[in-house]
Design a protein that fits this description.
The chain has one domain. The protein is about 30% helix and about 15% strand. It has 4 helices and 5 strands.
Length: about 140
């Protein structure tokens, strides 16, 4: 994921080991792809997620609980214009989700990874992504 910021770009990698991670139970994501029927059948909880935040966590956890298989593609190269805002509204939604889904209060998976670097320009951002992919044989 590449986030433009005032001084350049923030390049993040959430997984450097596989192009697609399987066996996922919950996703805090920027892009969710599925068949329309799945979105309709699982639905959105507008009460727990009454703003911009949390819908992805709630939706994907309920999808996994319903027996659907989730995966994360870590080789899409997404540019996202918002790094997020962890403000009072975010915290309120997080509290509601932890109350609704007590399993969110547990330990984070050891398989979860996060690496971030700030670079001055788009060319350096792409070179960093290409280098991480080359090092980890992600095509």
């Amino acid at each position: 994921m590449i986030y433009p910021d005032g001084s350049g770009y923030r390049v993040t990698a959430y997984s450097r080991t596989v192009p697609v991670a399987h066996g996922i139970r919950v996703i805090d994501g920027v892009f969710l792809a599925m068949k329309r029927e799945i979105a309709v059948s699982i639905g959105w909880d507008a009460e727990a997620c009454d703003g911009f935040h949390g819908y992805d966590v709630d939706f994907t956890l309920r999808a996994a609980q319903a027996g659907l298989r989730l995966a994360v593609a870590s080789d899409l190269g997404v540019v996202h214009t918002s790094y997020g805002s962890f403000d009072a509204r975010w915290e309120g939604t997080a509290r509601k989700l932890r109350a609704k889904h007590p399993e969110l209060n547990g330990e984070r998976s050891r398989d979860t990874a996060f690496v971030a670097r700030s670079v001055p320009g788009a060319a350096q951002a792409m070179a960093l992504v290409d280098n991480w992919a080359r090092l980890n044989k992600v095509n």
